[in-house]
């Protein structure tokens, strides 16, 4: 499933325009030169770094999605195909833009924003999930439950928690393996300069993009299973998901469910 590399065409057009401007730059008044110089300087990282990174990430994530979620590889559903591309594109945009912005902030010496959430975000986004294990004390509010029953409940709940964390950590590792080569290709110079805190901030950006991507893929699998994709809505995935949520809320709030 390939998409058109618009970033490549934009990049070539930008380079040609920049070259042509350089050839006639001296013909412009000084104020116009300053304006055009600043415009090319502002656009350069977006055209030369963010857009090509986003394009490569999108293609890699489209392929990854079909491998990670084989249930989505269903022919004859143009809406489904479009939604897979949309999800990959949103994740690619998020990673490329957020990594660029965070690396820029780090190079400028700016602290993480918001600072009060830094430690929590590091734990949740930049680290593997750690199982939250229970003990029998968590069930003591239930009266007259035999000790052997409590032991069984704790073991079963803890096993489910461990398996869930292992599953999510596996998904995240696979996602990182897909996106990291592109990030190291386009942001290598900045990444080579990172200290421990910088890598944490990098991990937050990648981890947050993964969580959004995973939730979107899970939602798409649910919509497919429930038959919501039997007809093409004509919407992009973002607006389709909003419509589905609105319909579910209306159904939940209807008098029949009260």
Please give a handful of descriptors for the protein shown.
mainly alpha; 258 residues; single chain; globular
Mean pLDDT, rounded to whole units? Answer: 88
Helix content range: over 70%
Topology as a string of helices (H) and strands (E):
HHHHHHH
Percentage of residues in strands: under 5%
Number of strands: 0
> How many strands, which pairing sense, and closed or not: the largest β-sheet?
none
In whole angstroms, how far apart are the ends?
45 Å
| Number of domain units | 2
Report the total helices: 7
Low-confidence spans: none
What is the subunit organization of this protein? single chain
Radius of gyration, whole Å: 24 Å
Categorize the overall geometry. Answer: globular
* Class per helix and strand makeup: mainly alpha
Describe the protein in words.
There is one protein chain. The protein has 258 residues and is mainly α. The chain folds into two domains: 34 residues; 199 residues, no CATH class. Helix content is 73%, strand content 0%. The protein is built from seven helices and no strands. Helix 1 packs antiparallel against helix 2 and helix 2 runs antiparallel to helix 5. It is globular. The two termini are 45 Å apart.
List the helices and strands and how they pair.
Elements: H1 6-24, H2 30-68, H3 78-107, H4 118-125, H5 147-191, H6 196-225, H7 237-253
Helix pairs in contact: 1-2, 2-3, 2-5, 3-5, 3-6, 4-6, 5-6
Give a nutshell description of this structure.
The chain is mostly helical. 73% of the residues lie in helices and 0% in strands. The protein folds into two domains: 10-43; 59-257, no CATH class.
């Amino acid at each position: 499933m390939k998409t058109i590399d618009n970033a490549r065409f934009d990049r070539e057009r930008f380079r040609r325009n920049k070259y042509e401007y350089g050839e006639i730059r001296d013909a412009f008044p000084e104020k116009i030169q300053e304006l055009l110089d600043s415009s090319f300087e502002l656009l350069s990282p977006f055209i030369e770094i963010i857009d090509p990174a986003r394009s490569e990430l999108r293609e890699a994530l489209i392929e990854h999605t079909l491998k990670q979620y084989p249930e989505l590889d269903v022919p004859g559903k143009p809406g489904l195909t479009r939604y897979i591309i949309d999800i990959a594109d949103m994740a690619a945009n998020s990673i490329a833009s957020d990594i660029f912005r965070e690396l820029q902030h780090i190079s400028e010496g700016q602290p993480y924003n918001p600072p009060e959430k830094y430690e929590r975000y590091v734990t949740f986004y930049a680290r593997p999930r750690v199982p939250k294990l229970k003990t029998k004390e968590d069930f003591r509010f239930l009266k007259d439950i035999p000790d052997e029953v409590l032991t069984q409940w704790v073991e079963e709940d803890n096993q489910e928690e461990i398996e869930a964390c292992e599953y999510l950590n596996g998904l995240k590792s696979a996602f990182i393996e897909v996106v990291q080569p592109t990030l190291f290709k386009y942001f290598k110079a900045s990444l080579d300069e990172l200290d421990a805190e910088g890598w944490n901030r990098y991990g937050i950006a990648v981890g947050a993009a993964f969580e959004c991507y995973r939730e979107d893929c899970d939602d798409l699998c649910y919509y497919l299973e429930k038959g919501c994709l039997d007809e093409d809505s004509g919407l992009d995935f973002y607006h389709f998901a909003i419509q589905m949520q609105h319909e579910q809320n209306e159904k939940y709030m209807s008098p029949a469910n009260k």
